[in-house]
Design a protein that fits this description.
It is a single chain. It contains 10 helices and 12 strands. By secondary structure, the protein is an alpha/beta fold. α7 crosses α8. It is globular. Bound molecules: glutamic acid (GLU).
Length: 279
């Protein structure tokens, strides 16, 4: 059993991250497995090494330990480029120059991952790609490449449930997602994430419910790439007193701030309802 905690160093860790990390390590311990730490820093516009250092400090403070060396995605860009090239070789990608404003103006509807791209550039070939273009995955072409869609097992909420990935969900809720970002040329989170889950032989993906709605797409990507699908366990999100989800954008208090105020890891455990002794 191998699981992982895969934060993006785009802000300080907060209580939600502490909940996730403690859950990951507790499950690994229960199954006599291994919990890996992976730094998902492919977004070069937002990832900062100071936040990465903060991740090590905060987890260490919580008493969590992980095998080294830690996989830092920005050190492995060639692997993601090769995965992208394998999709390209099968004619599943196209370049896209649409701005967010153009996509909005085209009447795009919201889906599981923001706006569902209306397919304006879908007829373009990769030979027409210009510097600064995004690269999108043609979902319909991908569907033609595989027969029966996979199902995956979700064991969150104390139940084991098998979910079938559906064509309708992929077409109506995902659309043609960006796998390589416009302007920065950064590899998108999904591709790097499923690439590494496969490479690191992750058997159980334990993470917050906020990523639940994107899981069928990640499973589709695994199927396209011929990678194994791990089991998933999406845990509930820590909420604040108003029942609002804690997230970096909510300017939730950083764990390091609690630490400098003299709050102990045990206090943190009590605040999020996960006794630290459960590790
Ligand atoms: N890096 C992602 C995040 O910080 C998590 C990825 C995952 O657990 O699959 O939101």
């Amino acid at each position: 059993m191998i699981t992982r905690f895969a934060p993006s160093p785009t802000g300080p860790l907060h209580l939600g991250h502490a909940y996730s990390a403690l859950t990951v390590w507790a499950i690994a311990k229960k199954h006599d497995g291994t919990a890996l730490l992976r730094i998902e820093d492919t977004d070069s516009t937002r990832a900062r090494s100071a936040f990465e250092i903060g991740i090590y400090d905060d987890l260490d403070w919580l008493g969590l330990h992980w095998p080294t060396p830690v996989r830092r995605q920005s050190d492995h860009l060639a692997g993601y480029a090769a995965a992208l090239e394998s999709l390209n070789a099968r004619g599943l990608l196209y370049p896209c120059s649409c701005s967010r404003r153009e996509i909005l103006a085209s009447g795009a509807t919201p889906g599981a991952e923001g706006l569902v791209y209306p397919g304006t550039c879908r007829q373009r070939s990769m030979a027409t790609a210009k510097p600064g273009d995004a690269i999108r995955l043609n979902i319909a072409a991908g569907l033609d490449h595989i027969g029966q869609l996979r199902s995956f097992v979700e064991c969150g909420a104390g139940k084991v449930v098998e979910h079938q990935v559906s064509t309708k969900f992929l077409l109506d809720q995902i659309g043609d997602p960006v796998l390589k970002r416009k302007d920065s040329g950064d590899i998108a989170y999904h591709l790097a994430c499923v690439h590494d889950d496969a490479l690191q032989n992750i058997t159980h993906v334990v993470r917050g419910m906020d990523l639940w709605s994107l899981t069928p797409f990640q499973v589709f990507l695994q199927q396209l790439m011929g990678w194994k699908t791990p089991q998933y366990r999406h845990h509930a999100l820590v909420t604040d007193a108003d029942g609002k989800r804690l997230a970096k954008i909510d300017r939730s208090k950083a764990l390091s701030k609690y630490r400098t105020e003299g709050i102990s890891p045990d206090d943190i455990g009590a605040m999020i309802g996960l006794p630290i002794s459960s590790r």
